[in-house]
Design goal:
The protein is of the alpha/beta class. The protein has helices at residues 45-52, 74-80, 98-105, 113-126, 142-154, 172-187, 200-206, 224-230, 282-296, 310-318, and strands at 2-13, 19-30, 34-38, 60-65, 68-69, 81-84, 160-164, 192-197, 209-214, 217-223, 235-242, 259-267, 272-279, 300-305.
Length: 326
């Protein structure tokens, strides 16, 4: 079942210069998916989320979200989805404790009495906020405030949640916490998630599929592994191996999944061997490389790999795919 099925979505912001935020965007998303909307600042990610959540009317195009017509049933759609925006903390009251904030919002989402108390207790436990229930929002970390904003949005138990840059401005601990929560919402509770990000690593970790937005245009949309493979981009895994007077046998590329070639350079007057394994899928190749290092008991001084950046993705997605070998 398609949770989102929209086509031709176009939005312009009129002003002295005029800006086209979205141009004829088509998007379909199945229930239970996690879709990453990737794009640089100004790509149109937030505008698209607002339209899909029923908060903004497109200038052209239309379709359905959760079965509701974008144009004719926007109020009903808004009540059926959850949204956490970068300004999520605007809805938090620093004069109320963490629990009191949720108690305040519960009736707005139609929750009362014992049902509301059970739901609040469940969310505090699920989001790791039980020990902060009586704390003031100003006295908890940014990551915990983000979790509180998520708890508020999850009170309604909606099937579809929009997360607009959920890890923006968080420290490393907060980022890990929110990423873990997103995975749990999807995998344990079956929620369909649409999130925006400009961090490729985040999309790889969380998203079952990715749509790339560039200047309001969807330049690519596919399942995450398929999209990355389709870009035909090789990435290096670099090793510095200390020889210590003994030879090192480097296997051919065929031994490592997704590897295409292996380069070696002798350095430091014969004391080290630099090995570069070129891979089209670094996460697939790395475990085999680590297994080889352990089996051969190699004294590796350094192992690094360069992950694909968002700029790499957009550049490659806009380029034509290479012709197949004849």
């Amino acid at each position: 079942m398609a949770v989102i099925a929209v086509g031709g979505i176009t939005k312009q912001y009129r002003g002295r210069r005029g800006t086209t935020a979205l141009q004829a965007v088509d998007l379909t998303l199945a229930e239970g998916a996690v879709l990453g909307l990737l794009g640089q600042n100004g790509a149109g990610k937030t505008t698209l989320i607002k339209i899909l959540a029923g908060l903004l009317r497109p200038d052209a195009g239309g379709g359905h979200v959760l079965g509701y017509d974008l144009l004719r049933e926007a109020p009903r759609l808004r009540a059926a989805v959850s949204l956490v925006a970068p300004t999520a903390e605007v809805g938090l009251d620093n004069n109320l404790t963490v629990r009191q904030n949720l108690v305040f919002w519960a009736p707005i989402y139609g929750l009362y009495g014992a049902h509301a108390r059970r739901r609040i207790d469940e969310l505090l436990a699920r989001l790791g906020l039980e020990d902060k229930a009586n704390a003031w929002p100003m006295h908890i970390s940014a990551g915990q405030r983000q979790r509180l904003a998520l708890a508020r949005s999850l009170l309604a138990e909606n099937r579809l949640i929009f997360l607009d840059e959920p890890t923006n401005k968080l420290d490393a601990e907060g980022v890990r916490s929110v990423r873990t929560l997103v995975a749990e919402l999807n995998q344990r509770h079956g929620m369909t998630v649409v999130l925006t990000t400009h961090v490729m690593e985040e999309a790889e970790e969380l998203c079952t599929e990715v749509a790339l937005l560039h200047r309001g245009v969807v330049v690519a949309h596919d399942e995450t592994p398929s999209l990355l493979r389709s870009l035909h981009q090789e990435r290096p895994i670099d090793l510095d191996i200390m020889l210590r007077g003994r030879p090192v046998h480097v296997p051919p590329a065929e031994v490592f999944p997704a590897a295409v070639r292996v380069d070696t350079v002798l350095g430091d007057q014969g004391a080290t061997l630099a090995v570069t394994i070129w891979s089209r899928d670094v996460p697939a190749t790395t475990p085999a490389v680590v297994a080889w290092i352990r089996e051969a008991q190699l004294p590796v001084r350094r192992m690094t790999s360069r992950r694909m950046t968002l700029e790499d993705v957009f550049q490659l997605a806009r380029e034509p795919a290479p012709e197949p070998d004849q």
